[in-house]
Structure formats: structure tokens, C-alpha cells
Write a sequence for this structure.
């Protein structure tokens, strides 16, 4: 090949490269043009600044920088208008000290939803609070709807990410039993469905019992949480994981909640359990659901963990303005025997309303109750749950519901009774579209145990709980509220002696404390 031919080939390749580069530039420009469809960066910046000011005040967080990343389509709203979600990265700087673990401010979950992020989409929040000058890095979003006057911000619920659980493997004898059970399930006949229900029910109970007994055999510290998708289960699992990392064999087990957890504690099947404080009070003296079992005098507390506010929910366009207005109305009060059910009954009774005074009583729980409300089959839902509750976030983002405050008289009456209620305020923006603070009461989740738990285990558990687990980075909204400063708020059962000693290192007055009526020691400041 001659030098002239080589030169021609080189020139051709250079030309081809230039054409290719030009095409790439054109495609990039087109891509960028597509990404900027919808509101621009200044519109996103304005919305974020307005939301921060409304929720936390103008002197709390400065929006140091914001960069628009792109946008994508959303399903149209109920009115059929076009919607888009715009993603951004931002840096926020604290202008003053702020502790998101405080029970009277927005928590991490509400703050994250305000910015269109998940709990894991925000870096820089500290478990023990942030100081002026600290910076927070946000990977968030703002959703907009295109109306007659252009793009308008709208509230959209952003679901969190769940976790999976695993079960144990079996041995040869176990396989034989499993084969026999499979044969029973495969057996034909008119009663096949009922047969399947019975077998499944028995197997569920047997699996739970086997797991607990094996853990006891291995001398593991067993912690009872709650339903797989709840905060009780998440906190219990994080605690168990940290204890294992520190060299203490441990296991978190799931349950149906406070009533079952207290039964597991009483029978010695678990060492520690998360329970609602007013249900624990009933177990201690053997009343209500525990009347047939008698008092559980050795029930003791390790810590009060986080508040679970009572939510009074009505349709957005409802004329209901107070608890007293529920007389003659259709109300969902939660599952019978649950702590939420007991609290709903107590609230109604404090307002002078008996269940017989209601137009209809539904007993389905928050999620199903919200659906009844949406379908027009219920007028109100009363639920006790950590805030913000995901099901309620979704309904609030869709503009379907609103929360009612309790009157000061009702709050005083409930907190004076010594049943574990504490006064609490849900700050504005706890839920999407919530413009004003909501005054209510709350119970608290307790970490409970028996008096036989050794001091060494108490110290390990409380050290892991307060010093080693970063609940904020772990994405636990309820866990982010766990601090030593609130460890004695709402106690309704005595503190374990080793816990009294533990808190005495930091809070001298706690060494003199035992469980007193919550109203005597509960004010949030």
C-alpha cells in the first residue's frame, strides 16, 4: 500500500470519526432536551425551599445548591391532568441545631417524604442530632401536574423498600414428615380446602414453636418484634443484628404484636419484646385481655422507645370536626384485642361515646379502614401507629383524608388516667398536604423483659440500642426516635434494676425512678 493510499484511509477514518462525534452530540442534545421536559431547575428549587420553610421555618435549613437531574412521566391524577416527576440532587446546610430524633419535630421518614426521597436517599443526618453548619445531601424528587396555568407541584407518596426473610433447612426425618404433609395436601375430596387451611394453621404454629425452642437450646437472646412489614420487627431485627456483631448470640422473631409478645415473655419463650405501654400495664396487673392469666408481676421495662400517636382520620370533604361528632357515624376502630382497638375505645369513652352509640363499628385496621373510608362505607378511622404511617401517607398524598386534632380537654382526660398516654403534636408536613400541626395523644413502644434477665445482657442490649445502632442510616423511621433522653417517657411498668443502674450513669434522677403514671412524667419539651 502506497503512502498516498494510507493518507486517504487516515483521512476517511478521521472524517468518519467526526461524523460519529457529531451524531453523538446531536443525540446528547436531544436526550437533554427530553430530560428538561416539564418544570425547570428554578421551579424545583422554589418548591423545595417553600416546603422546607413551611415544615421547619425559614431559619433551619439553607438550600446551598440544587441540580436538576431529569424527569419522567407519572400516571395522570384523578382529574386526568398530565404529571411528571423531576429528580434532583441537593445540598442542605443547617442554620441552627436540630435533632430529628426529637418526638416533637418531624422525624426522618416525614422529612424524607417532604423532599421526595426515601430514608436512604438522604445522607448526613445524625442519630443524635445535627449542629449548625452540618450539611445534608439529598437525592430527591418533586412531582408536578400540568394545569391551565402551567406546572403546579403535587404531593406523591414514595413507598419504601422492604426486606425479605429466610426460613430454616430440614434434615432427613424432617423431609419424611414434609412428604407426609404434602400427601395430605394432595389428597382429593370435597374437604380439600378446609384440609389445607387446618394443615397450614398447624404448621405455622409448629414452625414458630420449633424456632423458639431451638434458639433457647442455643442460649440465644431472643427478641420478639411484630409483623414482618412493621417497625417493631425492623427495630427488633436491627437490635439482634448488632448484638450478633458484638458477639452475643441473638435472634429476632416475628409476631402478631403486643398481646402475643407479652404471652411469649410470660411463658419464657423470648427474653425481650417490643410492646405497647398501655397493653404492658394491663399485663402487669392482669386486667382486660390478661384477666384470665392473672398479674405478670415480674414484667419490667428496659426502655421507652418511640411514640405511637393516635390518629383520628376522616375524609377530606367530611363535615366531622371533633370526636363528639362521631356519635351515630360509621367508625373503624381496629382489630379486636389490638392496642389500637383499646385506644379507640378509650378515646370514644373519654368523649362520652359508647360503641353502641356509633352508626356502625368496623374492626379492620388502618389499611382496610382507609379503603372503607375511600369507598364511602366508613365515616372515620381511629388508629394508633407510628407516624408517618405509610398507608396514611399514600391516602394523604392523594388528597383523600385529613387528620383531626383532639381537644385540650380530651387530651388532659386521657393523659391524667395513668394508662400510658402522653400528649404529642404531629408537626405540619408529617403527612403530605398537612398544613397545620395536629394535637393528639400517643402511647409509647416499650422494650420489655422479665426480672430474670441478667445485668450483663441488659447492659449489652441498652449499649447496642443507644450507642451502636445508627437507626437513621438503617432507614428505620421509628428507630430514629430512640434516645436515652426519652427512655423513661410513658413508662407504665417498673424499670429493670439493671436499667435503672444504666441510666443512673447519665441521668442521676433516674436511679430514683420507678414506673409512675405516665401523666406525672411525660411532658415533651
Amino acid at each position: 500500500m502506497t503512502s498516498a493510499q494510507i493518507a486517504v484511509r487516515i483521512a476517511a477514518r478521521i472524517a468518519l470519526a467526526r461524523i460519529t462525534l457529531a451524531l453523538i452530540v446531536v443525540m446528547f442534545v436531544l436526550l437533554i432536551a427530553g430530560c428538561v421536559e416539564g418544570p425547570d431547575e428554578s421551579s424545583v428549587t422554589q418548591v423545595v425551599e417553600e416546603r422546607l420553610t413551611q415544615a421547619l421555618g425559614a431559619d433551619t435549613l439553607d438550600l446551598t445548591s440544587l441540580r436538576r437531574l431529569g424527569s419522567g412521566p407519572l400516571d395522570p391524577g384523578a382529574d386526568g391532568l398530565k404529571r411528571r416527576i423531576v429528580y434532583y440532587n441537593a445540598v442542605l446546610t443547617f442554620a441552627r441545631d436540630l435533632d430529628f430524633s426529637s418526638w416533637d419535630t418531624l422525624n426522618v421518614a416525614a422529612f424524607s417524604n417532604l423532599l421526595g426521597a426515601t430514608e436512604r436517599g438522604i445522607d448526613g443526618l445524625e442519630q443524635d442530632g445535627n449542629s449548625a453548619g452540618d450539611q445534608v445531601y439529598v437525592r430527591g424528587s418533586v412531582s408536578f401536574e400540568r394545569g391551565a396555568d402551567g406546572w403546579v407541584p403535587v404531593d406523591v407518596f414514595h413507598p419504601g423498600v422492604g426486606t425479605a426473610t429466610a426460613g430454616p433447612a430440614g434434615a432427613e426425618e424432617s423431609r419424611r414428615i414434609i412428604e407426609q404433609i404434602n400427601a395430605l395436601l394432595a389428597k382429593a375430596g370435597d374437604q380439600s380446602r378446609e384440609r389445607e387451611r387446618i394443615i397450614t394453621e398447624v404448621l405455622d404454629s409448629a414452625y414458630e414453636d420449633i424456632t423458639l425452642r431451638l434458639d433457647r437450646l442455643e442460649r440465644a437472646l431472643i427478641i420478639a418484634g411484630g409483623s414482618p412489614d412493621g417497625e417493631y420487627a425492623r427495630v427488633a431485627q436491627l437490635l439482634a443484628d448488632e448484638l450478633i456483631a458484638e458477639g452475643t448470640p441473638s435472634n429476632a422473631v416475628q409476631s402478631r404484636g403486643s398481646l402475643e409478645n407479652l404471652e411469649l415473655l410470660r411463658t419464657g419463650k423470648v427474653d425481650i419484646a417490643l410492646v405497647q405501654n398501655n397493653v404492658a400495664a394491663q399485663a402487669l396487673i392482669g386486667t382486660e385481655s390478661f384477666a384470665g392469666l392473672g398479674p405478670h408481676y415480674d414484667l419490667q421495662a428496659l426502655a421507652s422507645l418511640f411514640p405511637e400517636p393516635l390518629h383520628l382520620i376522616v375524609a377530606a370533604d367530611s363535615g366531622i370536626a371533633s370526636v363528639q361528632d362521631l356519635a351515630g357515624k360509621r367508625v373503624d376502630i381496629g382489630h379486636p384485642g389490638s392496642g389500637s382497638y383499646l385506644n379507640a375505645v378509650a378515646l370514644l369513652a373519654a368523649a362520652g361515646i359508647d360503641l353502641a352509640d356509633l352508626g356502625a363499628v368496623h374492626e379492620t385496621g388502618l389499611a382496610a379502614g382507609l379503603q372503607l373510608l375511600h369507598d364511602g362505607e366508613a365515616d372515620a378511622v381511629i388508629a394508633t401507629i407510628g407516624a408517618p404511617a405509610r398507608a396514611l401517607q399514600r391516602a394523604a398524598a392523594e388528597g383523600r383524608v385529613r387528620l383531626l386534632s383532639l381537644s385540650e380537654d380530651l387530651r388532659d382526660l386521657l393523659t391524667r388516667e395513668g394508662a400510658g398516654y402522653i400528649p404529642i403534636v404531629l408537626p405540619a408536613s408529617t403527612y403530605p398536604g398537612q398544613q397545620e400541626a395536629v394535637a393528639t395523644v400517643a402511647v409509647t413502644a416499650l422494650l420489655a423483659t422479665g426480672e430474670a434477665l441478667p445485668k450483663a445482657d441488659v447492659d449489652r442490649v441498652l449499649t447496642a440500642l443507644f450507642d451502636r445502632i445508627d437507626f437513621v442510616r438503617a432507614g428505620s423511621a421509628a428507630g430514629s426516635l430512640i434516645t436515652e433522653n426519652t427512655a423513661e417517657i410513658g413508662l407504665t411498668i417498673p424499670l429493670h434494676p439493671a436499667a435503672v443502674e444504666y441510666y443512673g450513669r447519665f441521668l442521676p434522677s433516674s436511679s430514683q425512678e420507678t414506673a409512675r403514671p405516665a401523666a406525672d412524667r411525660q411532658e415533651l419539651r
User: Anything to note?
Assistant: Confidence is low (pLDDT under 50) at residues 25-35, 161-171, 508-525. Residues 41-154 form one domain.
